[in-house]
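Re: the 70-residue chain
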Amino acid sequence: MAYKEVSRVEITEVIRQWQAGRGIREVARSTGLARNTIRKYILTAQGCHSLFIQILKGLRQGWSSRGLGG
């Protein structure tokens, strides 16, 4: 398959549809992107979310150890 540059708007649409409960096949059909591409963006988004949660937990622990609440 040929290389196709995907815009940020398209990636946002993929994540939005997936968060709305649509399956990978449905999202692929509606966006015209390959299922593996959809899967890659979903896994990346999940990884970013996990990293964000870890950062927040670390910040809270830092705040608590300094007596700043949290």
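The mean pLDDT is 84.
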